[in-house]
Amino acid sequence: MNCPMCTRWQDQPQLRIAEFEHCYAMLNGDQFFPGYTLLFTKRHVTELFHLQPAVRQAVMEEVSRMAAALASVYNPAKMNYELLGNMVPHMHWHLVPRQTTDPLWPRPIWSEPHEDCLLSDDRYVQAIRSIRAALGLID
Fold first, then answer.
1. Is residue 16 within 8 Å of residue 9, measured between CB atoms?
2. Phi, psi of 47 (to 5 degrees)
3. Beta-strand pair 23-27/16-19
4. Is residue 138 very low, low, confident or very high in pLDDT (cuts 50, 70, 90)?
5. β-bridge pairing 78-82 and 92-98
6. Domain ranges of the chain
7. What CATH number should be reported for the domain whose range is 4-109+130-134?
8. Measured CA distances, 131 to 50, 62, 82, 109, 137 (Å)
9. Are 40 and 18 in contact (CB under 8 A)?
10. How far is CA 25 from CA 39, 106, 132, in A?
11. Residue 81 β-bridge partners
12. What is the DSSP letter of 15?
């Protein structure tokens, strides 16, 4: 199996935010929407119903914890949660703090193509540190 999500944690260490019991959280390289984060299961699984109830509940708590930290840092008008898996069939959430001032508000983030917004290494580090602090993680 050639799943890009299965190797993402190893492939992009500079974007790592946190390792939880069941999931990894990483800042998305494209920061067109500031704070855009991916949270994905450590184990390759495609559907929520494939998880045992206790694990499913724990995963949803990790999603909620990550979203709360992003909300604390970015103070969005709305947090978007996307769990699709059509193109990458590995359970992963796109957690996107949305602002009423963003160019695509209130439409979905994929409603129009846009150029990737890549940050300097220092800005990625600053964003990740802020999110980790909101999670209560000490560097």
1. yes
2. -135, 145
3. antiparallel
4. confident
5. antiparallel
6. 4-109+130-134
7. 3.30.428.10
8. 29, 14, 19, 21, 9
9. no
10. 4, 25, 10
11. 95
12. G
Reply yes or no on whether 92 is catalytic. Answer: yes
Q: Which two tokens stand for residue 59?
A: 């995963």
Cα diameter, the chain: 41
Catalytic residue among 44, 50, 90, 92: 92
Tokens of 82: 């996307």
User: What are the tokens at 13?
Assistant: 């260490």
- Residue identified by tokens 């509940």 is 57
For every residue of 42-95, DSSP letters joined together read SS----GGGS-HHHHHHHHHHHHHHHHHHHHHH--SEEEEE---SSS-S-EEEE
91: confidence class by pLDDT, cuts 50, 70, 90: very high
> Which pLDDT belongs to residue 38?
98
Reported pTM: 0.96
Q: Which helix (H) or strand (E) holds 131?
A: helix 121-134
Residues 6+ apart with CB under 8 A from 136: none
Q: What is the mean pLDDT of residues 113-135?
A: 97
